[in-house]
Amino acid sequence: MAKIIDEVSRTFSEYLLIPQLTLSKHTSSNVSLKTPLAKFSRNQPSRFYLNTPFVSASMQSVSGSEMAIALARQGGCAFIFCSQSIKDQAAMVSRVKYHKAGFVPSDSNLRPDNTLAEAVALRKKTGHSTMPVTHDGTKEGLFLGILTDKDFWEYEDDLNAPVSSFMTSKDQVVFGTLGISLHDANSLLQKHKKECLPILDEEGHLRALVFKKDYFDHMNNPDELLDTRKRLSTGAGINTHDYSDRIPALVDAGTDVLCFDSSDGYTEFQKNAAQWARKKYGESLVIGGGNVIDGNAFRYLVEEADVDFVKVGIGGGSICITREQKGIGRGQASALMAVVAERDRYFSETGIYVPVCSDGGLANDTQIIIALAMGADFVMMGRYFAMTAESPTPKVSIGGRVYKPYWGEGSNRARNWQRYQTADQGSGLKFEEGIDAYVPIVGSVKEVLGVTTSKLKSTMCNMGSLTLREFAENTVLTRISEQSFVEGGTSNVLSLDKDLPREI
Ligand code: IMP
Known about the structure:
Blueprint: E1 15-17, E2 35-36, E3 40-41, E4 49-50, E5 54-56, H1 65-73, E6 77-80, H2 86-100, H3 116-126, E7 131-134, E8 143-147, E9 168-169, E10 176-177, H4 182-191, E11 196-200, E12 206-211, H5 212-220, E13 235-238, H6 243-253, E14 257-260, H7 268-281, E15 287-292, H8 295-304, E16 309-312, H9 322-326, H10 332-350, E17 352-353, E18 356-359, H11 365-373, E19 378-381, H12 383-386, E20 396-398, E21 401-407, H13 417-420, E22 436-440, H14 445-462, H15 468-474, E23 477-479, H16 482-488
Parallel strand pairs: 5-6, 5-19, 6-13, 10-11, 13-14, 14-15, 15-16, 16-18, 18-19
Antiparallel strand pairs: 1-23, 2-4, 3-17, 7-8, 8-9, 11-12, 20-21, 21-22
Bound molecules: inosinic acid.
């Protein structure tokens, strides 16, 4: 006979936190959001930490290279989507790793005989106004000079004239030689008051560019998540089908952490794939498993698949229809608390701590805060990041507001066969588990995370905590009734935003 779990499935919005004693040391500036991502033994460091507890979902409409760069700059980590060819995914990873090296490959190059009109068209296409001129117009051609928008007047000069007559030629360009350190390259930029430093090899071929603005970005983002070579860190999604080809390609490209992208991770497929990866790469590989929603599945992935972290959540995602389509899932708060309880039990039994990630269904900052208070070591979000400037989708104007498309990996649009493929489903998609939608644009990753982290830090102070560990340990939650929920909104007042007409 079917077994029924006594407790009802609950969501984050059914809980509130009861403040604990706040001491004078509990100020936002003293709070650390650093959190482990890879399992570790008691009193040992983890092999991988996040500086802020946020990762972006492995989804086509969320995590490309631009997201990975922006999120790593804020101390989090993107999981670049795997519903694409191995080659394309590895190229996205390489782009992130190359970016932070400070030595950026030049993507807007001209030949000396190109016209100014062609230079303008190139600038519009790439958005970059610094355009090296090489003998053959390639990024590693013989360097002849550089053209920037300071060198000509688009509406005054003859746009049919060749680039060679307007560029700053090589003999007047300050450049660095291949092998120069980033520190020395930045010193040259400072000394010569330049915005961009071309790096040339001994034969004079262009090899990279170093920009002053990248140095400032670095100084403005003290939480940046960097690898041991000071490159930005990035994650990548993997599946249980082509892992023996995909994982080596991603590791070669420099991926720091991998994670299975699966709606149900309690499977022998995941165990086999994870074991294969562990055997090949040992502890140098950081690999996450999931998704799961109960303690048994957590144990299986930890003990049998030997994963470094476990992702929790089935059916809670904003674009997800898995619960309706297949009848599997659990309220995200209940799922998280069940897995967290098992994680803590496992830790006290074995001395091994396996971080837990709450994935999907976080509809606002409060829910992010509650998930972390309930013991998630970090959270994965799709919609939240899809709404930022750095998600890989184009802006669309609907009814006077600007939106971005956001679709599930199990939707027809994503055509991510492998993720939802089961042995008897074959290779075609017979039903969808996700929808195709739009979300409003809210700002850059830095802006939105800035607001979320200040709310989180402030709440942690209310709870007498300076670290996420203390936060989870100090947490006292209360379940709320529907009436308390109503009471939590504004009441018996006319709201300037909602009720009263504003003067324009
Ligand atoms: P969100 O943050 O609520 O938008 O949820 C994002 C999460 O939904 C992802 O990290 C995945 O775990 C999950 N997800 C992504 N695509 C689908 C889908 O098509 N169906 C069901 N779940 C999905």
